[in-house]
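Illustration 12: DUF2157 domain-containing protein.
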Amino acid sequence: MSEASQKLNNKESPLDSARLAAAVSEGILTEDQAERLTDFWTRRGVTGPLAETLPHADIEEVRFVRGFHDIFISLGIGILMVGLIYGLQHLLPAWAISAVGAVSIWGLAEVFSRRMRLALPSFLLSLAFTPFFFMACFGLVVDQDLTGLSLGGWRQNYETWLVIPTSLVALAGAVLFYLRFKVPVGIAGITGGCLFIVAVLIEMAAPGLIDRYHVGFFLALGLVTFGLAMSFDIKDPARVTLNSDKAFWLHLMAAPFIVHSILALVASFSGQGSVGYSVAVIALFVILAIVALIVDRRALLVSAMSYLGFAIGYLILEANVSEEAAFAVTLLLLGGFILLIGSGWSLLRRVLLAPFSGQPLLRYLPATT
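Figure caption equivalent — predicted structure in token form:
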């Protein structure tokens, strides 16, 4: 037996999803090679000791913390950045502080993301770079604080031709940061930047259009983001490459847009705080749960949980019980429902997808277990 074969059958060194993702990020394997290897594992079957160590596809892993060392370093980064910003607030204008912050974040990422490859610090640095760089770019052409400035405010107060170039420069910085450090959450930041530029273009072409049709606009943004997330999920149905992580953050980004927009539409027809609205919220949650089960993404349900709790509470109050009792029963029902759907996730997926067994589309979805 060759040394490679011995390692393959050694329980102490399983080819799990985290190691495969690390091999892709370090350039040992390309994403295409990782996907082909994954397909070999999951579709042709693996026997022997390794079979027991392979990850289940329906476990929604989020690889952004690997140990307390990651947390310890992240605390240090946070304290350092707060001290840097606080120390410079009376010495430099806001845009310059943002620029210093962006440069500092890039430097820290060179150490903790590219060289040490620490998961949580890489996640936090990637999350922080885009807003810092955006504020620095906009600050170069705007002399006042941008907080609370609407898209209409841009058109009324500033040269419109400055908006798109500065947005593109900021977006280019986010893309370069992602290409340099390959942190999956960076895809969500880039997507957000692209959606912002689209919003600015629409506002410039038709002032006030987004304000008048903001519900439909944000619903469209959510559906586009969801579609992009699914494009990454389809590439990695076994959930072992970085495509799965990219899809996770996009799903988490898409869910609030979709949920809040649909419920705003429901409220406009039935009136918020009515029995009809509460029933519609529960029905929407059930539909989202079905979609989440099909695509195997629990993140889709997070944004709807608070609405579901309010809907259940309202219906209980309609039964003339005390507010304390309604609050307690609402939490019990909501918590129990979440635990029920969470613990029975695999079984529910099998039941839901059983009628479609053998259909070609199932090849693009995680396998049921």
